[in-house]
Amino acid sequence: MDTEQQQPVTPAEPPGRGGRWHTVQPWLTLAARLGLAGVLGFAAVTKFPPALSVQSVEAYQLFSPAVAELIGYTLPLFELALALLLVIGLATRYAGAVAGLLMLAFIAGITSAWARGLTIDCGCFGTGGPVAPGETAYGADIARDIGFLALAAIITVWPRSPFALDRLFGLHR
């Protein structure tokens, strides 16, 4: 006679915890946070002195000179602020969403310049302005920004990550 009782089989992961994804997701978000922060921070720093940024914005021919100057002076500061929020993990979901909207605006601007036949450098990393017709890289610039948009989407949809100040405030545990 078999005296051993069969033990119920229990799943390796508690139900509803997401299994492997629950373990990987925070680290993926951390990588996205730091990667996007690095890009935004680098982009901001390369736009100094602000005259470089103003020149880049003016090259798109989308705004009046006064508006282009305002954007040119404030964009590097805005990018730097977003980078800082992402690095420290404060208001992570919102910073990711705003960064995503910024990437969409950049994609729209580059697409507009391409469609209108302008021959400019995007100015994303401080080198904007007119270039020779064969020196444009609109397709690569748009593809790159789509990649950055994907990072922003990861952060927005799954903001929970290690080393984030959001945790101190009880957000995204």
Give an overview of the whole structure.
- The chain has 173 residues and is mainly alpha-helical.
- The chain has one domain.
- The protein has five helices and two strands.
- It has a two-stranded antiparallel ribbon with strand order 1-2.
- The relative contact order is 0.17.
- About 3% of the residues have low confidence.
- It is a multi-pass membrane protein.
- Its main location: membrane.
- This is MauE/DoxX family redox-associated membrane protein.
- Regions with little confidence, pLDDT below 50 for 5+ residues: 10-14
Number of β-strand runs: 2
User: Can you tell me the number of structural domains?
Assistant: 1
Strand order of the largest sheet: 1-2
Structural class: mainly alpha
Termini separation: 51 Å
Quickly describe the structure:
The protein is 61% helix and 2% strand.
Question: What is the strand and helix layout of this fold?
Answer:
Elements: H1 19-46, H2 50-59, H3 65-88, H4 92-115, E1 120-121, E2 129-130, H5 138-157
Antiparallel strand pairs: 1-2
Helix pairs in contact: 1-3, 1-5, 2-3, 3-4, 4-5
